[in-house]
């Protein structure tokens, strides 16, 4: 008889963002007259920029000609894109094109990367945390059992207002460490010096850091590292995930990449070779048309156009921060990040405040507790709505919090 992967049965409920989508759909079905503003999942709203669209059109036309048609592409991504990524995103950092693996998303890669790690690794995650790191390790059997609000085998690193949302170095030996900075969900960042302490820890303990840098394009302050490889020695201990989703509006188009340096070895085995083996077996590459579109992000026009969008979203983040602060909430993030993390008023539970905002203000957010136990008592707003809707949402929230 066939057996299932019983680790799936241990997963509580459904995936956080599907849960919220279902809740919102049910509310809308009951109240079709109410206009709901979505500031929950971090999905962009601005259209793809002209440089990207032009490159896509050109690539589509190429695909319709005998000379330009392409079938299966390289599983690791076309050289034209890998080279552009290295030249632009890793200039001076010593990363080579064959250390870049183009993929359909940082979410998929953050989940799939677990394939190349053993089942007994001790995994450390920030708390609150992007749920993909936790759920995919639970699926792989590395998380143990879900008891109350935590997994028995995960090492949780609380990130709270008290410690400035900065995880403390683990007090025990851990093998895989997920770090996401600028952080999802808190929107907070760390300095190069702080990141160095993690690289040092990993080097001393033989751990691998899985560094999610999906929001680096939103960094506005100096001394906030864009890549973990800015820290010396990181190439020997870290894998980095980047995405075109939030940077260039590719959430629906799908394109990202993962950097696996050849210097990164576990027990003498190069992880670059293992990830290559994994990708060649389970993945057939990102469509040619999409990779040409991603390449256009690095042109002069492309850069300027995506910058305008990022600044637009950062402007929304400012509107959210200002309004919530004026309404008397404690507010974090939103300066180097599209996420604003706010303390709920009067000690309200995250889901209760989520319900209040949905039913009284018609605004969808993400409850902090959905990201882990230390997220309880917080709520997350995204800045990816339109400016008009962001302002409207803030007016409504200001009114109900009076
Ligand atoms: C989020 O809202 O946390 C992200 O958009 C989810 C994702 O990128 O998968």
UniProtKB/TrEMBL annotation:
Residues noted as binding pyridoxal 5'-phosphate in the record, renumbered to the chain: 72, 106-107, 130, 184, 215, 243-245, 254, 284
Its recorded reaction(s) are:
(2S,6S)-2,6-diaminopimelate + 2-oxoglutarate = (S)-2,3,4,5-tetrahydrodipicolinate + L-glutamate + H2O + H(+)
Which Gene Ontology BP annotations are present? lysine biosynthetic process via diaminopimelate, diaminopimelate-aminotransferase pathway
Q: What is this protein called?
A: LL-diaminopimelate aminotransferase
Q: Which family does it belong to?
A: Belongs to the class-I pyridoxal-phosphate-dependent aminotransferase family. LL-diaminopimelate aminotransferase subfamily.
Keywords in alphabetical order: Aminotransferase, Pyridoxal phosphate, Transferase
Q: Does the keyword S-adenosyl-L-methionine apply?
A: no
Q: Which organism is it from?
A: Candidatus Ornithomonoglobus merdipullorum
